[in-house]
């Protein structure tokens, strides 16, 4: 028989207290510079001691107006200078949790933190989410990320495809294929390359496209000049029909992102910049869109000479300490982002020098081990930051992919390299179409040992038809 009894006792264990300050520091890793700017704007509104560098440089003097709290002063009056004598300086209240453990064991808990700060999704995030759901092939996703990063603020796409594809040593045909899919994303008309294409996409969704409307969209210049008679002849309709068609066109938006506020259109400068100085790659944070704030110590010292209630004293001391903590957390964020991005570029030097075919296989754990950080920290940073390189602007996660072992026992290669080789073999097909088994054999001859089923998996992910289907297509076009 089992006896159950309740006995009071004390149990001792080691752990890390996830204070609001520590949670805030961890959360800052997730934000890119634009999101950070919005977050700091809210913090500045709530904290009287936080100001931007521009605000502080522009001040002529500190406001010397007396505080007039509602509380009765009497015995509760005290001087803020007493804070240092009661329990140490107020910013020291939080300093004990901001030590070396923050960069080691504390990170082990971040993978279970699901807190999210409320903010409106940017168009970049909206499009990236659609891309992640649409593209199963990682190369297609990488191209989609690159195209999203080159979208104009108004929603048009005006970048030279040949230049972009050339930077990555990927065919412009592949870029065009991905772009054609992106043009089907929401909002309607996104990635249009001209006004007529933007209008066409919207009118098509409204089932208002016909031959006369097509002719009208091809001659918008005449419409802008008011040449109604000429348009009637071109479109093969009466003048009244032209005016009806014009009324339909007015239902459309001339800019795909006209419904988005400027704040939500965050297709802008990247967070990190990579440059080549002589023979060495250098990594730096983008100072142009990196928010800078300061704690106004002068204002704090001014208040310290005034007599206020204990309640107001506590509020102000908490705000001042919180501001000091935030500055420390921001410094930690910048330093960690720089360390991570520098190591990524170090690992992917061959990609920068020679192109996509030389992308090195790399997972989050590789960077985490190298920098002695937790894997979840690397994940938080790479999921939201963009980096500008001479080969284009990429999300940091672009540089991570699985590895494939080489048959000769040499250094492992990225799965992206294998996929790229498969595409090269297929693109060079002539009369003889290559089966998946033959592709696996060709890969083995080039030093890459993969099974036939792996080739099939990669081919399907890249949306390349089977050898049987490719044979039928070849017969139809020849």
Please tell me how large the radius of gyration is: 30 Å
CATH superfamily of the domain at 403-477: Homeodomain-like
CATH topology of the domain at 403-477: Arc Repressor Mutant, subunit A
The percentage helix is: 40-55%
Number of strands: 10
- The CATH architecture of the domain at 403-477 would be Orthogonal Bundle
Instruction: Please report the number of helical segments.
Output: 23
Notes on the structure:
- The chain is an alpha+beta fold and 478 residues long.
- Among the domains are: 207-249; 403-477, Arc Repressor Mutant, subunit A (Orthogonal Bundle), CATH 1.10.10.
- The protein is built from 23 helices and ten strands.
- It has helices at residues 20-30, 33-46, 53-57, 83-87, 92-95, 123-134, 138-149, 161-168, 172-182, 195-205, 211-217, 220-224, 228-235, 239-249, 297-304, 310-347, 349-354, 364-371, 375-382, 415-427, 436-445, 452-461, 467-477; strands at 50-52, 78-79, 272-277, 280-285, 293-295, 307-308, 386-389, 392-395, 403-404, 413-414.
- The strands form four sheets. It has a four-stranded mixed sheet. Strands 1-5 form a two-stranded antiparallel sheet. The protein has a two-stranded antiparallel ribbon with strand order 2-6.
- Strand 3 and strand 4 (280-285) form a beta hairpin.
- Residues 60-120 and 261-267 have low confidence and may be disordered.
């Amino acid at each position: 028989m089992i006896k159950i009894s309740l006995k009071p006792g004390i149990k001792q264990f080691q752990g890390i207290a996830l204070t609001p300050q520590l949670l805030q520091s961890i959360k800052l890793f997730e934000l890119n510079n634009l999101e950070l700017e919005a977050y700091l704007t809210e913090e500045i509104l709530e904290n009287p001691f936080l100001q931007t560098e521009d605000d502080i440089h522009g001040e002529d003097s500190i406001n010397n107006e007396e505080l007039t709290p509602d509380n009765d002063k009497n015995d509760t009056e005290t001087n803020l200078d007493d804070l240092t004598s009661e329990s140490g300086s107020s910013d020291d209240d939080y300093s004990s949790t901001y030590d070396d453990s923050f960069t080691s064991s504390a990170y082990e808990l971040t993978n279970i933190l699901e807190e999210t700060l409320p903010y409106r999704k940017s168009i970049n995030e909206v499009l990236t989410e659609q891309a992640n759901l649409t593209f199963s092939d990682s190369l297609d996703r990488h191209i989609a990320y690159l195209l999203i990063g080159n979208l104009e603020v108004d929603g048009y796409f005006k970048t030279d495809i040949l230049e972009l594809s050339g930077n990555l040593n990927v065919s412009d045909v592949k870029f065009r294929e991905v772009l054609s899919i992106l043009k089907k994303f929401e909002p309607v008309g996104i990635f249009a390359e001209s006004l007529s294409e933007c209008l066409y996409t919207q009118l098509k969704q409204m089932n208002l496209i016909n031959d006369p409307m097509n002719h009208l969209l091809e001659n918008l210049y005449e419409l802008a000049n008011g040449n109604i008679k000429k348009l009637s002849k071109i479109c093969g309709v009466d003048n009244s029909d032209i005016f009806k068609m014009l009324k339909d066109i007015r239902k459309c938006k001339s800019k795909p992102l006209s419904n988005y506020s400027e704040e939500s259109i965050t297709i802008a400068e990247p967070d990190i910049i990579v440059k080549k100085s002589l023979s060495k790659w250098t990594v730096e944070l983008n100072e142009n869109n990196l928010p800078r704030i300061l704690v106004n110590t002068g204002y704090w010292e001014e208040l310290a000479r005034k007599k206020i209630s204990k309640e107001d004293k506590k509020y102000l001391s908490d705000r001042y300490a919180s501001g000091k903590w935030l500055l420390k957390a921001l410094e930690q964020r910048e330093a960690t982002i720089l360390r991570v991005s520098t190591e990524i570029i170090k690992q992917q030097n061959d990609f920068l020098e020679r192109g996509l075919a030389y992308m090195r296989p790399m997972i989050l754990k590789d960077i985490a081990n190298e920098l002695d950080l937790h894997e979840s920290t690397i994940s938080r940073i790479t999921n939201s930051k963009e980096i500008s390189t001479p080969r284009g602007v990429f999300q940091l996660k672009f540089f991570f992919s699985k590895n494939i072992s080489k048959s000769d026992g040499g250094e492992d290669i990225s799965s992206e390299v294998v996929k790229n080789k498969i595409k090269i073999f297929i693109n060079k097909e002539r009369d003889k179409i290559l089966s998946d088994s033959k592709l696996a054999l060709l890969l083995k001859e080039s030093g890459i040992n993969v099974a036939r089923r792996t080739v099939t998996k990669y081919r399907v992910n890249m949306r390349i038809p089977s050898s049987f289907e490719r044979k039928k297509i070849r017969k139809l076009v020849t």
